[in-house]
Design brief:
The complex is a heterodimer of chains A (299) and B (328). Chain A is α/β, with parallel strands linked by helices and 299 residues long. Chain A is built from eleven helices and twelve strands. The chains are: A alpha/beta (299), B alpha/beta (328).
Chain lengths: 299, 328
């Protein structure tokens, strides 16, 4: 059974974050291999909103992780990766969210994988075949770390965490074109690019409004960590179709062993959706599906 | 003129608001829209606009059109407004009038030379709350206003419809200082400076402290300290750094004080207002300013805020950029 650790971040400094990451990795018995040379870190940089909104990974969290990797491994090449998206470009987001400064300070690479060389792979999810591009930077890394956030997202997907963060490893910019089959695409991308480790930056969580949750959560299993994230956010994991599909496709388990602090502690503090907000979300989804959102001034 | 035939050039965020409102104006018909985007032209066609053009020069050749709403990126204002004036069509131009004072002067000259009316789009002047404040100043109920605080905080161009199926990209020109003329100060600071100038007259001196939280080449926040000819001192806070809109003006007078706010409203309320009235209260001021512009054309009166108003705002902004305060 997979292990998922829950650790409290005590303080807001790089050192306190680093300490929490160390604890969370110890709890899941994760050993960094000394011989690691090439490391890829995938934060969630979905838009031009900084970490204080809870929408994007805090550069301090990534800085703490880099410091730890440098201590534990002989990594020569550490790359922070992101791809251009329909509404966002890496050249701006790296600068605006403080990743350029971070890269300069810690001497790591910032890679826009939309400009990276890629190889096309064929992945089967259920009865569907996906032809996906795998960026070389990811393919060549010998340690791939996923550093997602816990967020609510569009109605059909419900939760963004580890699995959904890999959607950003698709180098194709106009990602909204995958939205009609978003769940299946997320699973396919995770099958095409398996990450070794997930460490959730839950220091500030967005929920319905940002809140300092002080959570570091780690697991080698993206399905297990997403199941835990769903529970924290008050969403029944069984209602998340892509999570169940990911389990079916062998990406991980929805049953896991909790280590460290209690999940309930963070669930009690997560800014969850009220019943009214859930209903409004469903209503908005219906309105959007019928194309009435523009007419009603909701775009 | 009994009725005004309108054209819209540019169907971005504000252009779409004008499209919606133009269909509901009294004594006006929206007859054409020009936009380089095929998607935007389809939106216009879906809204029953008969003529759509990819090139706005074709719209200007249309003799049916009396006036044009220009809702283009700031760096295109000068060229477009000049061509509209030369085509002898009246101009409603979105704020800021231009990137800099020189361009603004050229736009005003072109309008004067061709005897067309020029109005700058500052919807706050048509907002009921802010108009009530103007009345209070005029009636003397506040006494003499010693201090004014004006704040406009938003996400600027960086707003993302998180629940929309088609995320909206931030147009590239927003990231380039040479195309915008500046950041939050010229973008939303122009609203506050225009409003305060309407209240208190011209600005005598102004200083600014600029912020760069988002590490861009252009400022994402500005705090300005302005002294008006009337003697009022104002603190103007503007920023692109917040997801939540906050727009408020507080006036502290020798007799009384007043605060006017324009807050964001819930989606539910917006939907209800759109269903019942065809427009939301939030964008009511956009409708009012267009109706006023149309009325000015019909009555042959000079619209306000005029091109000169836009120029004075830009002169104040230019002075603020020049007189920067540095803090450790």
């Amino acid at each position: 059974m997979s292990l998922v650790s829950f650790t409290k971040i005590r303080g807001n400094t790089i050192n306190s974050v680093k300490q929490a990451i160390i604890e969370s990795l110890d709890l899941i018995d994760y050993p960094f291999k000394k011989e690691i040379k090439n490391v890829v870190i995938k934060p969630n940089l979905c838009y031009y909103w900084d970490y204080s909104t809870g929408q994007t990974t805090d550069p301090k969290f990534v800085a703490a992780l880099i410091a730890l990797i440098r201590e534990k491994t002989s990594a020569e090449d550490i790359s922070i990766i992101e791809s251009d998206a329909s509404a966002m470009q890496c050249k701006h987001v790296f600068k605006m969210l403080g990743y350029e400064k971070l890269a300069h300070h810690y001497n790591v690479n910032l890679i826009n994988i939309s400009q990276d060389k890629s190889d096309t792979v064929e992945v089967k999810v259920g009865s569907q075949n996906f032809h996906l591009m795998v960026p070389r930077t990811i393919r060549n890394a010998d340690l791939k770390i996923n550093v997602p956030k816990i967020k609510y997202t569009i109605e059909g997907i419900k939760i963004t965490c580890a699995l959904k963060n890999i959607f950003g490893c698709n180098p194709y910019r106009w990602k909204f074109r995958f939205h009609p089959k978003l769940g299946e695409t997320i699973v396919a991308l995770n099958k095409a690019m398996r990450f070794d480790l997930c460490i959730v930056d839950g220091n500030i969580c967005s929920g319905v409004a940002p809140r300092r949750l002080g959570l570091a959560m780690a697991s080698k299993d993206p399905v297990a960590i997403d199941t835990a994230a769903a529970k924290i956010a008050g969403v029944n994991p069984r209602t998340i179709k892509y999570l169940q599909l990911a389990k079916k496709e062998g990406l991980g388990n929805t049953v896991f062993i909790q280590k460290g602090a209690s999940l309930q502690y963070f669930k009690d503090r997560y800014p969850r959706k009220s019943v009214m907000e859930k209903l409004m979300g469903k209503a908005y989804s219906v309105v959007t599906d019928f194309g009435l959102n523009k007419r009603l001034g909701l775009e | 003129m009994k009725s005004v035939n309108l054209g819209i050039i540019g169907l971005g965020y504000v252009g779409k608001i004008h499209l919606r409102h133009s269909k509901k104006l009294g004594n006006a018909n929206l007859v054409a829209v020009a936009d380089i985007s095929k998607k935007a032209r389809k939106i216009a066609k879906d809204a029953d606009v008969k003529k759509t053009f990819a090139n706005y020069e074709h719209l200007l050749k249309d003799d049916d059109i009396d006036a044009v709403i220009i809702a283009l990126p700031t760096h295109l204002h000068l060229q477009c407004a000049t061509q509209v004036a030369e085509a002898k069509k009246h101009i409603f131009l979105e704020k800021p009038i231009a990137r800099n004072v020189t361009e603004a002067q050229e736009i005003i000259s072109a309008a004067q030379k061709n005897s067309v009316k020029l109005m700058i789009g500052y919807p706050l002047r048509f907002n009921t709350e802010f108009r009530n404040v103007k009345e209070k100043i005029k009636n003397g109920t506040l006494g003499e206003v010693e201090i004014a605080n004006a704040t406009y905080i938003s996400s600027g161009p960086f707003f993302h419809r998180t629940e929309s199926h088609t995320p909206t990209s931030v147009p590239e020109w927003w990231f380039k200082k040479e195309l915008t003329g500046g950041g939050a100060l010229i973008d939303i600071g122009s609203h506050m400076i225009n409003l305060l100038r309407w209240y208190f007259g011209d600005i005598k001196s102004i200083k600014s402290l600029l912020g760069y939280r988002l590490n861009m080449d252009i400022e994402d926040s500005a705090i300005c300290l302005a002294r008006f000819e009337s003697g009022t001192t104002a603190v103007i806070n503007v920023g692109w750094f917040s997801q939540k809109l906050f727009l408020e003006v507080s006036l502290l007078g020798s007799v009384n004080h007043v605060t006017a706010t324009r807050a964001s409203q819930s989606r539910l309320l917006t939907a209800v207002q759109m269903l019942t009235t065809g427009t939301s209260r939030f964008s009511q001021s956009h409708f009012a300013e267009l109706q006023y512009f149309v009325n000015c054309l019909i009555n042959d009166s000079t619209p306000s805020p005029s091109g000169e108003d836009g120029l004075k705002d830009l002169k104040a902004i230019s002075m603020a950029y020049k007189n920067q305060i540095q803090l450790a």
